[in-house]
């Protein structure tokens, strides 16, 4: 039983049910002892250690203290701590110094804050003063404008005045030979503001029209259709023009018949005043059939004149119409260099009838000098030129007999030899081209001479005219001594020496001037007709019609990017550029010189003005007649200004614009698909004084990028779209240009502001 009970207790109770309880009780006893043991160790062991250490530090022997606090000197005695002590002392000193500086800076900041407040007050006062000054300036400018408006009213385009009378009675001159503009021209039909209207008769409406050369008639009609002065209203016309030649020989009317037909013209008004009879020649053998016709007070324009027929300042010597219905082939024209060619001079011709045979008498040279009869120097000319050819000092070619049948010519006139291509081939090899005038001095000009002059100028052979009595085409408005040599026949023995003594520079200048004259006045039917009208218009002092402005089709673009300042623009030297603030756009005054330029330049050019570009008055609106040209810009852009208006250097600095109180210029910039380069060039124009606007000629068919941001340079930027890609687009008269001065540059041109100002002034 005892064993059984013990077993039961061991198993946790009676039977099997008490065993779990006993196990739980024994595990609780173990955890309790374990916790108690850990508590004793964690609590009492630190207390014991603290007590022990405190007891050691409280010992009497100070040298045995290990954990107690020490003084600073004792600590520094430790060797490895000495460096740290020095660092601490240095840092402390620096901290003291920084603190002192901080206090000084705080005091200075306080003083500066006081000064800033004082400056702000000064700025506010200055702004108030500036505002008052601006108001005073604005009032002064307004008063000045009012005074200017009272004393110098702004000019506008005058009202066009037209003739209102159909017939005016003139005192008849004693002879038609005495006709001049003052006694044979009706100025009342040509007011200054009339615009020079010209009425051209239709030759087909009259019997003589069927006799006209078809090519000349077609070329003349084509030219008339495109001329700006031609009007269909005969009642307002200033000048009436009728074409009567060149006529074809087989069907040419009799002189009496042609005279009756001319007098029956509807606006002939009994005497033909204000009429111009044009007789154009396409061949060298054109006859002077108007010589035996009474033309009354009508002006005559043709290539052949006798001295009894020609009225200086009234009639016009015109050039032959070689290229009637076709443009000249400029590719076949030889270059102007080299200056000297194979032959020094050349001449080909044959004289059909001599002067002596035509006069049926022979006089001595002494009698001829006395003026009893014109002297015939042709024999001496032939002898002298042959001697020069035989001397072989220079290569020359002279032929006084044609290999083939010579062309028909007037008596005493040297007939042309060969065909036109053969003659041009010889002239291309000649430095000079001899032109021997007719032996009959009463024949002041002939179609054969004008044909020789035309061909020489065309291929660059310098004309040498033997006979000072000759009247060359447009001689009253062209200074022929700049493009040709006019030598009296008695100096034939000195011709060779004279031609050899001319320098290459002078030769090239004369050749270039001759080429200019040929291209401008001789080459096409348009040039011939326009030149004739320009001469009459200038004689009666009517300004030229303005050239039609080219409409500028603007390309939309966005602006807003602030333009930067190029550092290269700052170095302007001692040149005073102009106002610091950009002036608002100011258009140049118009109509100031339109109606006085012609008269003033006629007097100046006929009495002075040396040089090839002072030949004849010219306005910016007339493309026919040359004059001075004032250049501004890089490249070849120029603005012709006729009378030479404009400031110069020192005077411009004293008065902005020279001759006018205010003056600005326009920049015309040509570009082609170089957006970055273009933007840089536009930015360099920022702040440029006297700049009115910038016209960008967009030469590409491809439009600029839509997201391209254009710079804001303070003036308008006009982007113009062109119809085709052409370098000549920079010279078109865009209607957006409002200033006289134009700076024409490329988009890659880099000019400083002082350089542009120097050119402008």
From TrEMBL:
Organism taxonomic ancestry: Eukaryota, Metazoa, Chordata, Craniata, Vertebrata
Domain Glycosyl transferase: residue ranges: 665-761
Membrane topology designation: Single-pass type II membrane protein
Protein name (record): EXTL3 protein
Primary location class: endoplasmic reticulum
Compartments it resides in: Endoplasmic reticulum membrane
GO biological process: heparan sulfate proteoglycan biosynthetic process
PANTHER family reported for this sequence: ACETYLGLUCOSAMINYLTRANSFERASE, EXOSTOSIN LIKE GLYCOSYLTRANSFERASE 3
Keywords per UniProt: Coiled coil, Disulfide bond, Endoplasmic reticulum, Membrane, Transferase, Transmembrane, Transmembrane helix
Molecular function terms from GO: glycosyltransferase activity
């Amino acid at each position: 039983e005892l064993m059984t009970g013990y077993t039961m207790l061991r198993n946790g109770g009676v039977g099997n049910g008490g065993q779990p309880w006993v196990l739980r009780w024994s595990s609780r006893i173990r955890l309790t002892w374990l916790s108690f043991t850990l508590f004793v160790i964690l609590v009492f062991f630190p207390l014991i250690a603290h007590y022990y250490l405190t007891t050691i530090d409280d010992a009497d022997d100070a040298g045995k203290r290990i954990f107690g606090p020490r003084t600073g000197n004792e600590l520094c005695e430790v060797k490895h701590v000495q460096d740290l002590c020095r660092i601490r002392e240095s840092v402390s000193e620096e901290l003291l110094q920084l603190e002192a500086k901080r206090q000084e800076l705080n005091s200075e900041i306080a003083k500066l804050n006081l000064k800033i407040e004082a400056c702000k007050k000064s700025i506010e006062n200055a702004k108030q003063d500036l505002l008052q000054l601006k108001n005073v300036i604005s009032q002064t400018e307004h008063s000045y404008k009012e005074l200017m408006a009272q004393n110098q009213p702004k000019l506008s385009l005058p009202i066009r005045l037209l003739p209102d009378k159909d017939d005016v009675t003139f005192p008849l001159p004693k002879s038609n030979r005495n006709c001049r503009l003052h006694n044979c021209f009706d100025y009342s039909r040509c007011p200054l503001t009339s615009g020079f209207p010209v009425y051209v008769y239709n030759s087909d409406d009259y019997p003589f029209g069927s006799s006209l050369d078809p090519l000349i008639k077609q070329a003349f009609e084509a030219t008339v259709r495109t001329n700006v002065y031609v009007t269909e209203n005969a009642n307002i016309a200033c000048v009436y023009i009728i074409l009567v030649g060149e006529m074809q020989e087989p069907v040419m009317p009799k002189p009496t018949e042609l005279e009756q037909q001319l007098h029956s013209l509807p606006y002939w008004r009994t005497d033909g005043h204000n009429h111009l009879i044009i007789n154009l020649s396409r061949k060298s053998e054109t006859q002077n059939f108007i010589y035996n016709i009474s033309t009354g007070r009508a002006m005559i324009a043709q290539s052949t004149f006798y001295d009894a027929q020609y009225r200086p300042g009234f009639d016009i010597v015109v050039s032959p119409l070689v290229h009637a219905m076709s443009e000249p082939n400029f590719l076949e024209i030889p270059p102007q260099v080299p200056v000297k060619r194979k032959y020094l001079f050349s001449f080909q011709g044959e004289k059909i009838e001599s002067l002596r045979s035509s006069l049926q008498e022979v006089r001595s040279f002494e009698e001829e000098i006395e003026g009893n009869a014109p002297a015939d120097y042709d024999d001496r000319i032939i002898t002298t030129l042959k001697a020069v050819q035989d001397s072989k000092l220079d290569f020359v070619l002279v032929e006084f007999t044609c290999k083939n049948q010579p062309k028909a010519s007037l008596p005493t006139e040297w007939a042309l030899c060969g065909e036109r291509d053969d003659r041009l081939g010889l002239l291309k090899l000649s430095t000079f081209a001899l032109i021997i005038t007719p032996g009959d001095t009463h024949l002041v000009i002939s179609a054969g001479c004008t044909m020789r002059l035309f061909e020489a100028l065309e291929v660059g052979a310098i004309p040498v005219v033997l006979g000072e009595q000759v009247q060359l085409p447009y001689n009253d408005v062209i200074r022929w001594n700049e493009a040709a040599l006019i030598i009296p026949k008695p100096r034939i023995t000195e011709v060779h020496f004279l031609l050899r003594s001319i320098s290459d520079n002078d030769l090239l200048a004369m050749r270039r001037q001759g080429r200019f004259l040929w291209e401008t006045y001789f080459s096409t039917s348009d040039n011939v007709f326009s030149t004739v009208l320009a001469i009459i218009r200038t004689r009666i002092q009517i300004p030229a019609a303005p050239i039609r402005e080219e409409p500028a089709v603007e390309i939309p673009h966005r602006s807003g990017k602030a333009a930067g300042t190029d550092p290269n623009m700052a170095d302007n030297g001692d040149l005073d550029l102009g106002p610091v603030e950009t002036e608002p756009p100011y258009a140049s005054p118009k109509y100031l010189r339109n109606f006085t330029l012609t008269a003033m330049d006629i007097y100046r050019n006929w009495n002075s003005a040396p040089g090839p570009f002072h030949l004849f008055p010219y306005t910016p609106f007339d493309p026919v007649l040359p004059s001075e040209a004032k250049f501004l810009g890089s490249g070849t852009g120029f603005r012709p200004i006729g009378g030479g208006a404009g400031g110069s250097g020192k005077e411009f600095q004293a008065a902005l614009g020279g001759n006018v109180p205010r003056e600005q210029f326009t920049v015309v910039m040509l570009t082609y698909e170089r957006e970055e380069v273009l933007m840089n060039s536009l930015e360099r124009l920022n702040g440029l004084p006297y700049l009115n606007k910038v016209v960008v000629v967009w030469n590409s068919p491809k439009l600029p990028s839509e997201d391209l941001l254009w710079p804001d340079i303070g003036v308008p930027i006009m982007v113009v779209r062109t119809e085709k890609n052409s370098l000549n687009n920079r010279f078109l008269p865009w209607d957006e240009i409002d200033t006289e001065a134009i700076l024409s540059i490329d988009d890659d041109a880099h000019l400083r502001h002082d350089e542009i100002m120097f050119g402008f002034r």
